[in-house]
Amino acid sequence: MRFASGVTDQYMYFVAVDATDLKTRETGLSGFTVRRSRNGAASAAMTTPTINETDTTNMPGVYELLLDEDMTIDAGNETEEMCYHITHASMAPVTRVIELYRPKITAGETLSIDANGRVSLIADHTHAVTFSAGMTISNASGTALALTSSGSNGAGLAATAHGTGDGISATGGSTSGDGLSVTGGGTGHGLSAASGGGATGDAVNLTAASTEGNGLSATGTGLGDGVRTLGGSSGGHGIGSTGANYGHGAKLTSGSGATGHGLMCVSDATDGNGLTLWSKGTGTGLQTNPGSNALSVDALAEINAEADAALDTAIAELGVGAPSATPSVRTGLMLLYMALRNRLDVQTSGTDALEIHNDAGTQITSKLITDAGGDYSEAKMT
């Protein structure tokens, strides 16, 4: 007689016979004493044994004992034996033995095998079937395990890991098989992943183990995106990528069509940037291939327009004071322009000097000049 470990609502039958002749069936008995021993343990009395007489008229002498104490086997065991010894002053002692086993399939569910040898399940539970450790399913010519939920919101497979274990650990076939192949139904996602409740867990963590393999290879169809991401509501990035050693944080290649973009950035915010670049140390925010198509025609036209606008912007006159020894291009050009365009005085009465003025005629700077013994010299501007 087998009973599933952990189940406490099932009965075991026994027959009570006369203690003297060992054949006359005894009816109307109560107040039994029951002792039990599981897996070699010392016998123990059942605290409150529940024993019912099944049917005095039609099944005289037949009783049923509720097995509701010590019904869970020890960790690591698949099966254990349990012995019951039932006594009463008006009957011969009865000894019954049962087997407690660890179920591989949730109790109360029914498995059937179709003409192709496939296993199907009939169940009205949240999960179709529950497996414990040690289950191996193989098929030499097809799918080893096919799971289908017929409920309106049921999961074909619900997997929960413990500790650092994986909910699902999948390895592709040795000849280019996928570790995990997922297809969405209708408008559903092929894969919907949510991170754990911790502060830093990733919804999806992808690592390529091969020499030049991709952590993620995604292909869109039609106008669909290969990868579509949304940043967090409080400033999170849609994509945050970091390259390792000399690798790129993100490598983008356009399609084989004539006009596809390797990267297309669009800002939906009022003042947001389609693309923002930062660099550290001596790195560049943007580095392009020096080929003729490093930037698109539109990008080059935009750059030219920006450069033209910068060159067409008027430069303000310099203020009064000595020019810097390390001026900006704008300041240096303006000093030369003011010296050529505006009033220039060569002062020879008193202190000899060259004097540069602004458009209003105000002197902004000057430099001393000397002529000693035929040697002409101009000092630094002050």
Notable traits:
single chain; 382 residues; mainly beta; Immunoglobulin-like; 5-stranded mixed sheet; 14 strands
Give the amount of beta strand, in percent. 15-25%
Order of helices and strands: EEEEEEEEEEHHEEEE
Number of helices: 2
CATH architecture of the domain at 2-101: Sandwich
Oligomer: single chain
Number of strands: 14
- Structural category: mainly beta
- Highest CATH level, the class of the domain at 2-101: Mainly Beta
For the sheet with most strands, the description reads: 5 strands, mixed
Average residue-wise pLDDT: 82
What does the overall shape look like? rod-shaped
The amount of helix comes to under 10%
Could you say what the CATH topology of the domain at 2-101 is called?
A: Immunoglobulin-like
| Uncertain parts | 123-128
Termini distance? 112 Å
Give the C-alpha Rg: 45 Å
Structural notes for this entry:
The protein is mostly beta strands and 382 residues long. Among the domains are: 2-101, Immunoglobulin-like, CATH 2.60.40; 329-378, no CATH class. Helices cover 8% and strands 22% of the residues. It has helices at residues 297-312, 329-341; strands spanning 2-4, 10-15, 33-38, 44-45, 51-55, 59-67, 79-88, 91-101, 110-113, 119-122, 344-347, 353-357, 363-372, 375-378. The chain has a five-stranded mixed sheet with strand order 1-8-7-3-4, with no helix packed on it.
